[in-house]
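Morning!

This is the sequence you dropped in the shared folder:
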Amino acid sequence: MQVLQVQLEIRPDPAEVGRARRWARSRLAGSGIGDEEPLAETLILLVSELVTNAVVHTGCPAVLRLSLPGGTAEPSTVRLEVADTSDRAPVPRCAGDEATGGRGLALVDGLADRWGWSVEGAGKRIWCELDRCAAPGEAEADDGGAEERRSVEECRSVEECRGAAPAEPEPAYGGLAYEVV
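The structure's back. Tokens below.
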């Protein structure tokens, strides 16, 4: 499966969050992930949270990267990364009921199938992944009676998506197409 990797440079300006959401939404449409898919809305929310964290908490420029399936409705994984030049580690907070912020990483933890962070050069990279279930109409099992693949509407948790697990990752840089904005 071909993977499209795209990236957007982000200035340390809160207005960049809206621009990042619009940019990500347009890239999703080009990869075959429609606005009506729950994955699209979840991914846009995660873009908003991670870009907001980079802009607000670091005050440094950042780079938003998306790794998207190449126009296929097959089960796959979508990866979102935000890299910045701050050496400050992301710190999940316990926000009180009245707090207006401090829930970003808790949202990422609750919505993403996997997430983490790593040191990248003088800064860091925060990443998360979402598993995409088979699209409606793609539910036929091709493995001789094993668990049926489920549609997006039927998928409610990672455990339910196990029948629609993505194929093994391709080797690094294998089949990748790049777009730098």
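Headline: The first helix runs from residue 16 to 30.

More detail when I'm at my desk.
O.
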